[in-house]
Structures are given as C-alpha cells and as structure tokens.
Specification:
Blueprint (H helix, E strand, L loop, with lengths): L1 E6 L2 E6 L5 E4 L11 H11 L11 H5 L5 E6 L7 H15 L6 E6 L8 H8 L3 H4 L3 E3 L8 E6 L5 E5 L7 E7 L2 E2 L3 E2 L13 H9 L15 H9 L7 E8 L5 E7 L1 H16 E3 L4 E7 L8 H12 L2 E10 L9 H9 L3 H10 L5 H11 L3 E5 L4 H5 L4 E2 L3 H14 L7 E4 L6 E3 L3
Parallel strand pairs: 3-19, 4-5, 4-9, 5-6, 9-12, 14-20, 15-16, 15-19, 16-17, 17-18
Antiparallel strand pairs: 1-2, 7-8, 10-11, 12-13
Helix pairs in contact: 1-3, 9-12, 10-12, 11-12
Length: 429
C-alpha cells in the first residue's frame, strides 16, 4: 500500500502492507453543479429560503444602501474569497454604492494581521482595485469595539465598530466541521471573526464543555454565544457561504438569510466531511493541508479529528509543516509548564486564558495515546507539548507499528486522514 501526503513543496510517500490499512478516510465526493464560479452564481440566483419564502436577492438587499461592509476570511481558511468577490462585486457596482463607501474587513478574530502577500492571496485579481478598501480586524484595539451586552452564558459582546458604520453587511465564509464550534461559517464571521479579545476569550472558554464538539450545534455553548450576538447587529445582513470539496474546489454555496444559508451549507458539509470508518485504529495518520498547516495552533484540528479514530493506547501521527511556528504561544507556554498532560488539564480548569482550549484538547489526546509530529517545529518545542518528532511520515509509522506489535497487536490497523483538519471520522460506536 502506498499513500502520498503533500508537505510544503514536496510529497511524502507512506508504504505499508495492505492488510494493515483499516481506512483511507477522505471527504466524500458530491456532484457540483458546474465549475466554482457557476456554483457561486447559481447560489446568488436561487437564494436560501426563510419561513418557506424565497430570500431577498442581492440586488434587492443592496437597494437604498449607502455604506457597505463586506466581511471576508483571513489566509488561515481556504475560503475562495477571490471568486466570491468576483460574483458579488458586479451587483455592488450596479447598486450605486460608491467605491469609497465600501469597506472590506478581514475577520481575523484573535489571529495576527495578514501579511501583504496574504492580502494578495485573499483578494486575488481584486487586489489592485480594492486593497485600499480592505482592512483587518484587531481584537485588541479597544477603540474599534462597541460594547453590546451579554449572551445567555454571560459572555460580554463587543464587536468591531465598522458593523455600525454600515447600513448593509455582506458576510462571506466557508462551512466545514469545527472541533468545538460544531461548524465554521455563518455566525462565526461575527464571533469570533470581528469580536473583541475579551469576547473571544470568554466564548472560547466554553470549548472546555463536553457539549462543545465537532458537528454539534444544539446545546453547544460556543454556538449559543455566537447566535446570541447576532440580534445585537442593527444593519441587515446578506450571507454568502461556500462548502468546499476535498480538493478545495467549490462543492456548493448558499446565499441570502444568514442562518438559513448557514444551515443549508451545514447539511451539505455533513455529507462531505463526516466519514464513516469500520472501527477505531491502532495508528492514525492525520495531515493538515494548506492553509491549515500554517502553525500548530491551526493544525491541532487534525489532532482532534484524528483522535476520534484512535484506540486508547495507540499512536497519532500529525503531518503538518507548521510553517509559521507554534502560533498562539499561551497554550504552548501552559503545556511547557505542566509535568504531565493530566497536570495541564488541571491547570486549565483553575485558570483559563485564550488558547488554553487548544492545550486542553491536545492534553486530552496525549493523556490516552502517543502523539508524534512530522513538522518543521524543533524536537525541543514538541517535547514541551508532550509530542514526539519524526523526520518523515514513514519513520513515524514504522516506529508506531513496532510499538503496536510490542504491545501484542499482531496486525496493527492504520487509518489515514489526508485532510485531517476537516475530516470527522465516525466509528459508529
């Protein structure tokens, strides 16, 4: 059996006996109705229904508007922003809204600001025309935030003031499973996308709840916070959401009412990304594809999803370049201070800071299995996080196979997740 895994500018090849493979768990194929631009245009034409009625068209939505805010994702997401702008902007131009009254806001949440190269990547052919209109959200810039009240869970809501300077809002994004918010997209454009730091930190603390997990919306406190923030926004919102396939092409799109389009996209995302596996495996190889391989903070999603397919006492192998390093340092610092994964979990329960939810999820996996990474991070960095290092996926797999056989497993079973950040394995237990 040979499996190829992309890594930076090269391809790693994994080889092992066919009898060891339990599953190659990839996103499911669905038939897209044409190329990416056709799918996007069709979504704008069809609209998502609310209350059994066809939604307001984009042209109708923009009518009478004077100041437009377009919310877009940053470079840590594979959202096809360039293509989405290509089908949105002609209607915007026809609406009569002046170009100088259009603001494109990059919803970075608590992430760093985009580099100029990333602005070029995000905007694509629109970089020359709209770079001057494009700004990034800074969650720690208090003067840019508006305080709006609290959610049912007590989370204080502060959102970017540009929301309240616009009389029309277009929220764009992509919908896929998220390991504690249930799904990305929709309401996430606002929280955490353009929320204040304290809001994001308090919301993400809810990720410690057992109800905060992949695919879960009802009863998920993280999702509840996001929903509670929406009625606090005064201007009308037009939503444009995509669902990508395993090759990051546009499989489907939904537009119109924010929540109707979100739930429509969720149904499709479940079909694509929730993958049935025959059983849990002794070894799971989970790869973080570009752009989620940017750092360990983002790549952790591949660890969390991979753990769903892993037996207790097994080995999880993460394949991710982590080209920008660890990412948020707070969770790495906490893990480095802890003596064991169990100690880390106890420290998090006592005192939470933004990023600690990552540490908690990672520690939970390390407490029940061995974790090894193929990455550009150093052996010392990884050791402080309770993660081993291997020079290649083959080296990591050979070591894991030997360890399993030493435990008495005659034919260790392997599951491969080539797109581990978004593939949610379901062992049907």
């Amino acid at each position: 059996m040979k499996i190829e895994l992309p890594y930076l500018d090269r391809i790693f090849t994994l080889e092992f006996p066919d009898e060891n493979l339990l599953a190659l768990a990839e996103p499911n194929e669905i038939d897209a109705a044409g190329d990416s631009l056709s799918v996007l245009r069709n979504a704008l034409d069809q609209m998502s229904e609310t209350g059994g009625k066809k939604g307001q068209s984009l042209e109708e939505f923009l009518q009478g508007g004077k100041r437009l805010l377009i919310i877009i994702n940053d470079a840590t997401r594979p959202t096809p922003t360039e293509a989405m702008l290509s089908v949105l902007l002609p209607a915007v131009e026809k609406s009569g809204i002046r170009k100088e009254d259009i603001c494109i806001l990059v919803a970075t949440g608590a992430h760093r600001a985009p580099t100029e190269e990333e602005y070029r990547q995000i905007l694509g052919v629109h970089y020359g025309s709209f770079r001057a209109n494009c700004v990034h959200h800074d969650s720690k810039k208090d003067k840019d935030m508006v305080e709006l009240g609290s959610t049912r869970n007590g989370t204080p809501i502060t959102l970017n003031k540009r929301l309240f300077e616009a009389d029309r809002i277009i929220a764009t994004g992509s919908v896929e499973p998220h390991y504690f918010a249930g799904f990305t997209g929709g309401r996430k454009a606002f929280l955490p996308g353009i929320a204040g730091f304290r809001t994001i930190e308090t919301n993400h603390k809810q990720a410690l709840s057992p109800a905060a997990r992949s695919l879960a919306l009802e009863g998920n406190p993280v999702h509840e916070d996001m929903m509670d923030a929406l009625p606090l926004i005064r201007a009308p919102i037009f939503s444009f959401m995509t669902v990508l396939d395993k090759n990051q092409g546009v499989a489907a799109a939904a537009a119109g009412d924010l929540m109707a389009s979100f739930y429509q996209a969720v149904k499709i995302a479940r079909k694509i990304f929730c993958v049935t596996i025959p059983a849990k495996a002794d070894i799971v190889v989970s790869a973080a594809k570009f752009p989620m391989d940017i750092d360990l903070y983002q790549s952790q999603k591949a660890i969390d999803n991979g753990a769903l397919a892993l037996k207790d006492g097994g080995t999880l192998i993460l394949v991710s370049s982590c080209r920008d390093g660890i990412g948020d340092e707070a969770y790495a610092d906490l893990l480095a201070q802890a003596s064991t994964p169990e100690d880390a979990i106890e420290r998090i329960r006592r005192s939470y800071k933004l990023g600690y939810h990552k540490a908690a999820k990672m520690a939970e996996v390390s407490a029940r299995a061995a974790v090894t990474a193929v990455t550009e991070l150093s052996e010392e960095q990884l050791a402080s996080l309770f993660i081993g290092k291997a020079g290649s996926p083959q080296e990591a797999l050979d070591t894991a196979l030997a360890a399993a056989k030493k435990r008495g497993v005659t034919v260790p079973k392997i599951i491969i997740l080539p797109d581990g950040c978004v593939t949610v394995p379901d062992p049907g237990e």
